[in-house]
Automatic annotation (TrEMBL):
It comes from Escherichia coli. It holds the Pfam family Peptidase_S74. This is Tail fiber domain-containing protein. InterPro entries: S74_ICA, WH-like_DNA-bd_sf. Residues 209-342 form the Peptidase S74 domain.
Amino acid sequence: PVLGTVFTSLSEILAYMRSVSQKWFCLHTTTTPIKDLSGNDIPADNYVFIKNANNQTFYITQESAEGGIKYKAVTTDSGEYGFQRQREAIWSNVITIAQKSDGEDQFNRIIAASKSGSGKNQDKILVVDQQASEGNNTLVIGGGSSVFRSATVIDFATNQDANATGGEKRWRIDSSGNLRPYTDNTYSIGYASWRPAQVYSATGSISTSDRTHKQDETILSDAEKRVARKLLGYICRFRFRDAVSSKGNAARWHVGVIAQDVQKVFSEEGLDAFDYGILCRDEYPAEYEVVYGTRMELGPDGLLTMEEYDTGERKLVREAGEIMSVRNDELHYFMLASLSGQ
């Protein structure tokens, strides 16, 4: 404005504001480049608003149709600007992200910048893609759109302490689509009290049998062979109680052994069944869930909104108990040894 030259950077604008103690400055970017305090070009069609606090500290807001960014810039002794930059935080009970609507279907997306930082869609990462149609409500995590980049890996992390920072990565979906634990031989699928109903597999499961992972190899003792032979007489058919409860007489029959019988037969031969991986007993504690209530709260906009809150009450979901089980593959090998005369 003084010399008739065009500003090419925010640093030049701040220097001008300091020189004349100007309190406010705003601009709308075009295709003509203007650099931010990092030296990067501010994309076209951005609105930039600068507030001069005391000729030393400046607050800068940069907004576009896709979001906003805020700076706090402080003048250093060298005349340059040290700054902090952060995205605006969103505080809300409910966040609705409407990306596109064709009049019938709804498309909602959360998008993040990639390492390149480019403003082009093909250089951004699609984090969450939610599509609502008449027949389905689909939630896609990590990509799936031809317009954006996708995640190469997805990690799942948790922390056992709700008040602690950090956390541990537990599971990963890799770029080939394989689900694996983040640390080898550490995590289980399910608990004794929370069991998957069924596992469907095309080729079965694979267990480690490499000799380099084992030790103390011995043949079965005479007492163990007697237990194995006796257990053959305890094979029975049975039905599961929960299946009978839900299906009645339509519940199917199963063939196997009863864990308590396995324990008894080992005991008869002076052996502790729990010294063997054949028999398992898992105890589980009582489990409770939070009881939530609803109440009307007056928001900062003067409007009443309904919110959920923790009443402090806890509802018993599952009583403490224990459950016994067998590893059928080991039990089968054990019984086969008695048949082979080992």
